[in-house]
Amino acid sequence: MTDTQRFDQVAGTWDEDPGRVALARAVAEAIGRQVGLGASMDILDFGTGTGLLALAVQPYVRSVTGADTSAGMLEVFERKARARGLDAVRPYRLAGPESLAAAGAFDLIISSMTLHHVADVAALFAQFRALLRTGGRVALADLDTEDGSFHSPDVTDVHHLGFDRADLRAQLAAAGFEDLRETTAFVHRRHGREYPVFLISGRALPAGG
Fold first, then answer.
1. Where are any strands of DSSP class E within the chain?
2. How far apart (Å, rounded) are the C-alpha atoms in residues 134 and 72?
3. Quick check: is 155 in a domain?
4. Tens digits of per-residue pLDDT, 119-159?
5. 53, 87, 70: which is closest to 8 by C-alpha?
6. Which CATH number do you get for residue 88?
7. Inter-residue contact 27 to 198 (CB < 8 Å)
8. Can you give the pLDDT at residue 151?
9. Does the residue 136 lie in any domain?
10. 20 to 30 A Cα–Cα from 21, which one of 39, 80, 140, 208?
């Protein structure tokens, strides 16, 4: 089963996990503190899933585009946005690198618990920079390095067992980001253990910088 197929299957019950809901709320609050949200901002939520994070930041910005490879997840996201009467929320289906490049132009790109599913993170960061307007920022949340116990054994689409924060900062710097900051946004508690989730943010250097 592919990554996308697995997420399609669980989309209908995804929001029933209180830990996921709490994570989205905590990451949204950390983004507000560390980066700031404003009424003139257009945001891309990469790996939006059912839109938990996108909808948490939506009241504070101009527009949110939620991008994901899973049609099932995006259907739930769109249904939730429609039920709330939100016009400035757009689900966007990712079908390859070209589709991300065509997503639009943004002031801020956010993501939560998606990077570990991406094989080539450095290439993704370069794509993020290309999508950002002048002075645009990223704010990315994911697991600190872990021993592989966070996911159940049947989850086979994990490319990284969390991340070393210094390594991720170095990759962001190499992709053209500065003013790199980090914080612990949330701590997952499962299997009797704690799994910290970081938030790293950075600002895109001007083109040619």
1. 42-46, 63-68, 89-93, 106-112, 132-143, 177-190, 193-204
2. 33
3. yes
4. 999 999 999 999 999 999 999 999 999 998 888 877 778 89
5. 70
6. 3.40.50.150
7. no
8. 85
9. yes
10. 39
